[in-house]
Amino acid sequence: MFCNGMVILSDGRVFINSGTLQYDPFHGERRSAIYDPATNVFTTVENMAHGRWYPTVTELGDGRVMTFSGLNDTTGATNQTVEIYTVGTGWTAEFAAPFTPPLYPRNASVAEWESLRFRARDQFQSF
């Protein structure tokens, strides 16, 4: 899972999201995994609806994980949807962001249901 997004979960495990499905042109894969450093085991979890090459993964205040951006698995275009993963439950349905993100945007969770995407010159967009 190269060119992925990662976040450390509150229990110390690492959530690894997507990666490279194909090179030239780049397409992202749909899979995700959780790595447990205590057992040195990777566990594959439910696939997303579409792939993401270089996504951004953000842990939300309630422990869920949001993934955003990345190049998709079918055309290599920027994935303009958000999916949220709940450990033990799986992914939500996709929902469209109100803007087209860059690859690997910088996100920060500011409330349970809101995330900010920071851009240059202190501009931001929220969803």
Question: How would you describe this structure to a colleague?
Answer:
With 127 residues, the chain is mostly beta strands. The chain has no helices and 14 strands. It has strands at residues 5-8, 14-17, 20-22, 27-28, 32-36, 41-45, 56-59, 65-68, 81-86, 90-91, 95-96, 106-111, 114-118, 124-126. Strands 7, 8, 9, 10 and 11 form a 5-stranded antiparallel sheet that branches. A 4-stranded antiparallel sheet has the order 1-2-5-6, with no helix packed on it. A 3-stranded antiparallel sheet has the order 12-13-14, with no helix packed on it. A hairpin with a 3-residue loop joins strand 9 (81-86) and strand 10 (90-91). The radius of gyration is 14 Å and the shape is globular. The two termini are 27 Å apart. The model is unreliable at 118-122 (pLDDT under 50).
Can you summarize this structure?
With 127 residues, the protein is an all-beta fold.
Q: Keyphrases for this structure?
A:
single chain; 127 residues; mainly beta; 5-stranded antiparallel sheet; 4-stranded antiparallel sheet; 43% strand; globular
- What is the ordering of alpha helices and beta strands? EEEEEEEEEEEEEE
Helical residue percent band: under 10%
Strand percent estimate: 35-45%
3D shape? globular
How many beta strands in the DSSP annotation?
14
Poorly predicted tracts of residues: 118-122
**Count of runs of 4 or more consecutive helical residues:** 0
What integer is the average pLDDT?
A: 87
Query: What would you call the structural class?
Result: mainly beta
Which value, in Å, is the CA radius of gyration?
A: 14 Å
The first-to-last residue Cα distance is 27 Å
Q: Give a short account of the largest sheet.
A: 5 strands, antiparallel
